[in-house]
Specification:
about 675 residues; 27 strands; 9-stranded mixed sheet; alpha/beta; EC 6.2.1.3; ligase; Rossmann fold; about 20% strand; single chain; GMP Synthetase, Chain A, domain 3
Length: about 675
Amino acid sequence: MALVDPATFLAAALAVVAAAVYLYYYSSQANQPDIHPLQLAQQSSVASIRESPNESPVYRAKTTPTGTPLLETPSSGLATLTDALRATRNLHRPDAVQYLVAEKVVRLSSDEMATRISGLAAGLLRISAHPSAVAILLPASPEFLVAYRACIDTGIVAIPISAAIPLASIHAILRHSSASVLVTSAELAMSLADYVKTTSLTHLVITGELDGSPPAEALRSATTVVSLAELESGEAPEKDAVVAPADPAYVLYSLTDASATPCGVVITHANVMAAVAGLLSNLPASQAITATDVFLSTASMANAANLNFINIALIHGCSICAHETTDAESFATYAYSFRPTLVYLEPLISRDLVQLFYSHIVKYPKLEYNIFMAGYRRVVDSLMRGMTPKWSFWDFTYFRHYRNVIGGNLRLMFIDGPSTPSKSIEWLRALHGARVIPLFGTDQTTAVVTAGAFYDYASAIDTHNVGAPLACNEIKIVNSEESVGLTANDKPYPRGTIAVRGPNVATRLWNSEKPVELNDGWLELPFYGEILPNGTIDVIGTRQTVTKSALSPTGLLLVERLERALSASRAVTDLCVVVSDPASKSIGIVAHPRPMELFATAKRLKKEYKMKQIDNYPWCSEYIRAKLVETAKDNHYEWFADIPLENIKVKLVSEPFSVANNMAKADGSNNRESAKKLIDSLSK
């Protein structure tokens, strides 16, 4: 039998390779965007008439153009959150709630949860026939969901409180809320023993048991202490409570400063349903959330944005995985066990997650690292051209592995848009293969008013933005106060205060005779925005951070926008800009550098370096400063690069920004007061 001629074999092999390359890279199918580009060219419906020269036209979702009603509910038969949750009574799911105990997954079925919820609902009515409100102070857990659902089912106002805020702030919220019942853990209850007697609490419903310590005795003398398990063992209510759309569902408090006056925003059932409808309408029909989805709740269940997704998961009968963390390694561990399809990530954990994976990848040998980055750039190129990356060598060898580390099933990742750098969004989209959707909103808008378009893969990468208005909202830009000087007539794009209107906008404050200030239904947010040509919105700063400055050629410094630009540097993970006063010619930067970046540089320059003793190595600050100046030039901040180096003060910190080290606030934003103290210390 004659052997195949080597030249013929080689030619045939080359022809096969060439055909594969052509089909993969150059065929019409391979280069077809997932959605026609014209559908993303204008993502808002824009009113043709401006009501005033001091404001922009009104922007709406394309699904609710001017002249049509704003979306108020996902279904005409569901007027309240209570209605929507009752509609899922016949859903039977063996893993309705999941959590880890001793690294083992524990599952509660929907039938078990229903029994606990109905029992607690009856128990709450039994201990207090007409409780004005029930405060829930628990970490993410089945007990939180049981207490929350029991309140919604009975029409009791739920007041979720994050356990991560200071005790003095928790006390201030409890006093202001006038809640008569507090559901909490024995440990948290005892930490509040000195405060309880000055509140309106009559009953403490606790998980666990109180001991015989003085704090426990103080609690018993000040309130009636009841076990949560005992209340859950009661009979179900005889009949369903009657709940109206205008009734309060829950109250949002976001107090992080104990010295501030508490302000609770009343979120009605109508507000909740409008927010849910707006978020759901932003997803194409092929990506609709169903009972097969698994939602991993990593943020506090008292977090306003996270509550929207808890509501969505409850309405659709999704499995809810309860785990509260700001640590990326902990998130990855739980995600690997739970295999979620949906997740909402706060800024701290999204930035930490990027750092976690990047710090692993930079440890590759140089050749392998270059191969990985070539694949990464190819994926980003596909995304920027509107295409989901097809199968490739890199996907098989690298990206699939990192997706599997967080369960491998993640398809929707919702993030806080204003506080998440563009490079982090790019990294999350490219590496994990999920749709990363930036959101924006405040407590008074049920935490959402905009969202990135599902198919806009370039969203918030090429031009940072938080998407277009949801179908339940309309948005406009109005001139800012004169001291700032942002106007709807600014060139090239209108800039100013963001104003919002819609059925998800709260109109009442809890225990306050002062109404929410609205102008013909419009709520002016404490944020400045810019409307981009495609109808999306960029949040350019807050009233506290947009300031006059002699450094900027325009005389106006958009601190948060500068931070996002500098955060594009691969040399840092977290960064906070500090400007002492408008006339100052210097600028301060507090940053946490990427450990592997400094390690590799120290090795190359043959310098000594220890992250925990970063203050002892001046070369590290000089290196990071040079990298930030380089990044500023790349991002068109030439004026920053032109500042004399001695006027750019850099203070490095050895840990990522967190609430624990006082560099971040509970909402994920930078703690600018702490950053300023660190910069001031450099001058001493």
